[in-house]
Prior knowledge:
With 97 residues, the protein is an alpha+beta fold. It is 24% helix and 38% strand.
Amino acid sequence: MLVFDKLLAEVADWDGVLVGTTPNCIVFTRRLTFLVIRPMKKELDLKFYSKVAHPEKPVLKSVASINKFENHIRIALLDDLRPALFRYLRESYELLA
Length: 97
């Protein structure tokens, strides 16, 4: 899937990022997990973390979890990979460093 390849190429190059797999998802860690990608039939479900809730689109769900928020975005097309998405992912990467 081209969308996943582009995400992988961008995020895997950040310092200290390890990529692992489970039976249902791909996990990106930097000491702690900062991004989980779950492939679905026609799209990818991305879960990332933030200090504050993100109630606006493209975030579908933002749920409080101990001292952070779990956020979900679904993407299907390369056009969905906008700079704002990468800012969210980078924020998650830096939050859990």
